[in-house]
Design goal:
The chain is of the alpha+beta class. The chain contains 15 helices and 12 strands. It has helices spanning 16-22, 29-49, 71-74, 95-105, 107-127, 233-236, 265-270, 298-301, 303-366, 372-407, 439-449, 451-473, 535-603, 608-642, 646-649, and strands spanning 91-93, 138-140, 186-188, 208-218, 239-251, 257-263, 283-291, 422-424, 477-485, 489-490, 513-514, 521-529. The strands form 4 sheets. A 6-stranded antiparallel β-sheet has the order 4-5-6-7-9-12. Strands 1-8 form a two-stranded parallel sheet. Strands 2-3 form a two-stranded antiparallel ribbon. Helix 9 packs antiparallel against helix 14 (608-642) and helix 10 packs parallel to helix 14.
Length: 657
């Protein structure tokens, strides 16, 4: 990532305060106070140096617990995340590696990948005349994480420490884990949950072959013939016949339906001759029908195919949006983890400085140079600092678990104690400069790139097809048909075209009736269905048009929302940059104020209360600087998201369908 660079590791050595304490001499009590004041200043400046501006390289005397790259990671080509076992120790990962792990292991992304298969299979389903399967429009949001709250600078209302009290401030410690920090939310990209009407049914494009073969005995014992003279041997002979019937149906995109069939019903019912061959005297017939209004037209009858193909693009856009949501969440959680790690270091330095101050005050109390109340104040500072350190460590550990739910959720099901600790190796360095160009061009680029807006426009395209079908269903039904039969067995009634809502196939009667004389029959005509009142279809059409208008307004609303998000994200980035710069300057100023308080204390012009006060405010300033830098990075990540550049800036390319 060009916004958070991987940290440069350096040899860690102990802070200078330890060396000063070890060289403390009991011979001269007056010089002890000078050394102790300088030691506190050195410890706090060491912690402040870790928060210096990015243009200044970190000093060689970095913190003793600074993260060190994992050997397994260093050996992985392409900066890919390395596998870590419990014996290997903590898992050191950069932001780039965390994103790569999320793309590979995140379950929300995997669910969307599976949905691609459903969308792909809907295309051949629609080509056969069926209805496309519904696709998933839900995008999972990432957990909020244990992001630290901002604290005021140079304020007497610090949430954790107070220089004006000898008692530690009561801490807010929850008795249970805050599940809202780890649970995922979700939102739907569907423009409207209300469905459209079914419209006119489409023909069954897949050819269907129906057949029946069997044995039939004809027993004329019960005869209505009363005149013996008119009876023939065929009227009184018991016959055994083979029964055969085969029918082929198929629909076409203009709405045309054909039926081709052959059977031996003439011989079976009206012939006195028995035959084991079912088609010794076959009857062949053909029927073709073409709707003129309702159900007619290539666009109307292939709309489900077009909808299924569009659904594939929508599903791909939803997958892209899920990847953006996951990557942006990983960035935020990773940045928060870095800030929490830095907060732990700040609190550790605060505890060390408070303990050093307490030690020196006790030394002064022993020689009668300091009242006991000053020692009590120092003890209060140590206690409060230790509580804050414990809280900072807990938040850091919880943040690791939350980040793991995105980058490696399967590891959470392993045996407790075998999951390695996650250590973020990147520093809170300034992000890249904001995108150049006029604001209207940035907004237009966001309209073109953002997948949530692209899929919304595709939904409109499908909705327009549905409304056109509803308009077609409101038309009268007038069909042309023609039939041909070789042996005069007439198929009863007219054949309905596309009236089966599930397949579109026309229902058939496998047992026709006819006369007892064979003849070739030709038939052609018009069948129609003209409703005197058509309120159902007209009401469906009106409701569908209103629903389409709602969705069009929703897309316009989304475009306005994107424009507002771009404007706000740019403003937020600039404000976060100013806040980070101000926090850095405030921390530098507070370090000078602490030096001045120490000098006054050493000269005997003030008590150690002033030192405790300025030391407390320096910890606040350092913590606020960490939070401000993290907010700056998160504002830059949010700007990438609203501009639709998250995947591009993360080095992720998606293949076009």
């Amino acid at each position: 990532m060009d916004r958070i660079n991987r940290c440069e590791t350096r040899a860690a050595r102990g802070a200078c305060l330890f060396g000063l304490v070890s060289r403390h001499s009991a011979a001269r009590r007056n010089s002890r106070l000078l050394f102790s004041g300088f030691a506190v200043s050195c410890a706090l400046v060491s912690a402040a140096t870790a928060q210096q501006s990015p243009q200044t390289p970190p000093p060689a005397t970095s913190l003793a617990n600074a993260p060190v790259p994992s050997p397994s990671l260093a050996q992985n080509p392409g900066n890919a995340p390395g596998s870590t076992s419990p014996q290997d120790g903590p898992l050191y990962i950069s932001l780039h590696q965390a994103i790569a792990m999320a793309i590979k292991n995140n379950l929300d992304i995997e669910i969307e990948r599976v949905d691609q298969t459903i969308a792909d299979e809907s295309v051949p389903l629609a080509k056969g005349g069926g209805l496309p399967r519904p696709i998933n429009y839900t995008v999972a949001d990432t957990p909020a994480g244990e992001a630290p709250a901002a604290v005021p600078l140079l304020s007497f209302s610090s949430p954790g420490l107070t220089p004006l009290s000898v008692d530690p401030i009561p801490q807010t410690i929850s008795s249970s884990y805050n599940t809202s920090r780890v649970l995922e939310g979700s939102h739907s990209l569907l423009l409207s949950p209300n469905p459209y009407s079914a419209g006119s049914p489409v023909p069954g494009f897949d050819a269907q072959l129906l057949g029946r073969y069997g044995w039939l005995r004809r027993n004329p014992a019960v005869s209505l013939l009363t005149l013996q003279g008119t009876a023939t041997p065929a009227d009184s002979v018991i016959t055994d016949n083979a029964l055969g019937d085969t029918l082929l149906t198929k629909g076409f995109s203009p709405g045309t339906t054909i039926q081709l069939g052959v059977n031996d019903f003439v011989q079976s019912f009206y012939s006195g001759r028995s035959s084991a061959a079912p088609f010794s005297h076959p009857n062949a017939y053909a029927l073709i029908a073409q709707p003129l209004w309702r159900g007619a037209g290539h666009a109307n009858n292939t709309r489900y195919i077009a909808i299924a193909k569009t659904n594939k693009k929508i599903s791909a856009a939803v997958l892209e949006q899920q990847m953006i949501s996951t990557i942006a969440g990983v960035e935020n959680l990773y940045i928060d983890l870095v800030s929490l790690q830095d907060s732990v270091k700040v609190q550790e330095q605060a505890v060390n400085g408070a303990e050093l101050l307490l030690h020196n005050d006790q030394e002064q109390l022993n020689v009668g140079r300091l009242p006991s109340i000053e020692v009590a104040r120092a003890q209060s500072l140590v206690t409060s600092s230790q509580v804050l350190l414990t809280q900072a460590i807990s938040l850091r550990d919880q943040q690791q678990v939350i980040l793991r739910t995105l980058i490696d959720p399967q590891s959470l099901t392993s045996t407790p104690g075998t999951t390695p600790e996650i250590v973020a190796t990147d520093h809170l360095l300034p992000p890249a400069a904001e995108p150049a160009g006029p604001l209207p061009e940035l907004i237009k680029g966001a309209w073109d790139r953002r997948p949530d807006l692209q899929q919304a426009r595709l939904q409109l395209t499908n909705s327009e097809r549905q409304v056109a079908s509803a308009a077609n269903a409101a038309k009268p039904e007038i069909d042309l048909y023609g039939s041909y039969e070789t042996r005069g067995v007439v198929i009863p009634g007219l054949t309905a075209i596309g009236e089966d809502p599930s397949t579109g196939n026309a229902p058939t009667d496998p047992i026709p009736t006819g006369g007892n004389r064979s003849s070739t029959v030709y038939e052609a005509g018009v069948q129609f269905f003209l409703p005197v009142q058509n309120r159902v279809s007209e009401a469906n059409l009106g409701a569908d048009k209103a629903l389409l208008r709602q969705q069009q307004l929703r897309v316009t609303q989304l475009e306005s929302q994107v424009a507002a998000e771009v404007r706000n994200a740019i403003t937020a980035l600039r404000a976060a940059q100013s806040a980070a710069d101000a926090a850095t300057k405030a921390r530098e100023l507070q370090a000078k104020l602490l030096d001045a308080a120490q000098e006054s204390f050493q000269a005997g012009y003030t008590t150690n209360l002033a030192v405790i006060e300025q030391q407390t405010y320096l910890v606040q300033a350092q913590t606020t600087e960490v939070i401000a830098k993290a907010a700056w990075l998160k504002a830059a990540a949010q700007l990438d998201r609203v501009l639709g550049q998250t995947l591009e800036n993360s080095g992720i390319l998606l293949k076009a369908n």
